[in-house]
Specification:
Layout (H helix, E strand, L loop, with lengths): L2 E6 L5 H10 L10 E4 L27 H9 L8 E9 L1 H6 L1 E10 L15 E10 H12 L3 H6 L37
């Protein structure tokens, strides 16, 4: 199973974490891919964070994206289930508007390389990001994980004048079919 790490850079409630995990799995075809990283010294990760959770004291309070990227780059490479090019952030805004930030690393060619040509030595790594509603997070993460950045880019999600980004800067994916929830335990967490 693929595991995408998520971080809390603000003090968020267990209820908000639960809401993120549950809401992000409503679109058809999604599963619990999220693993909460609680502390910078953490070396083992859940395969799908589920409840009940103890109150979360985040070790990443007000951490910058650069610090989270360094954490990701320092992970052992032998665990092939952990996605090392995508990370998700629940921040102070997440509590207000039920959105997360998804960061994804890509390699691109500089402008001096002809279109369609690829030169490994010239590849530039950069991190792209999108703010999405909880219900779109797993959907976008799966597209990105399946090497579909070019497809995502073709949707216009990376353009500055983006038809899919609202005035609040939130990427609003086209309406996704929702699945019925028959996989929840008594506490409402994925079974």
């Amino acid at each position: 199973m693929t595991t995408v790490l998520f971080f809390c850079t603000a003090n968020v409630s267990v209820e908000l974490i639960k809401e993120f995990v549950v809401e992000s799995q409503k679109p058809e075809g999604t599963t619990n891919i999220w693993s909460l990283v609680r502390d910078p010294s953490q070396t083992e990760f859940d395969e799908g964070t589920v409840g009940p959770l103890d109150p979360v004291e985040t070790g990443f309070l007000e951490s910058s994206v650069d610090n989270l990227v360094k954490f990701m780059e320092g992970l052992p490479e032998e665990d092939e289930t952990i996605v090392n090019d995508t990370l998700v952030i629940l921040d102070g805004r997440s509590t207000r508007d039920k959105t997360v930030l998804i960061h994804h690393s890509v390699y691109e060619m500089p402008d001096d390389v002809e279109d369609g040509e690829w030169v490994d030595e010239k590849a530039i790594k950069s991190w792209k990001h999108w703010r999405v509603p909880f219900t779109s997070a797993a959907y976008l993460a799966m597209y990105l994980e399946n090497n579909a950045y070019d497809f995502v880019k073709s949707w216009g999600f990376t353009a500055k004048k983006d038809n899919f980004v609202d005035q609040e800067g939130v990427l609003r994916l086209p309406t996704l079919p929702m699945k019925e929830f028959d996989m929840l335990d008594d506490d409402g967490w994925p079974a």
